[in-house]
């Protein structure tokens, strides 16, 4: 968690695919009801989006997300990605 937080702050323009799979960042966009970008988002964008699932509001005066909201958000993000993966693997909707 600390590495995610530190890298998001010191190298915010890195591609999120260094730490997140394609399914994870796409799941984050789908659940947040944001359009999928043509290229993977930046690491800072993805960390803030994941922390949002953990309760981070992202207001102007809030600063960067903390470890607790990021941890909670990443847990939820993993659940979202697993659900979407399971849905994709289904051949039929019964």
Automatic annotation (TrEMBL):
Every Transposase Tn5 dimerisation domain range: 6-87
Domain of life: Bacteria
InterPro entries, alphabetized: RNaseH-like_sf, Transposase_Tn5, Transposase_Tn5-like_C
Protein name: Transposase Tn5 dimerisation domain-containing protein
Taxonomic lineage of the native organism: Bacteria, Pseudomonadati, Pseudomonadota, Gammaproteobacteria, Thiotrichales
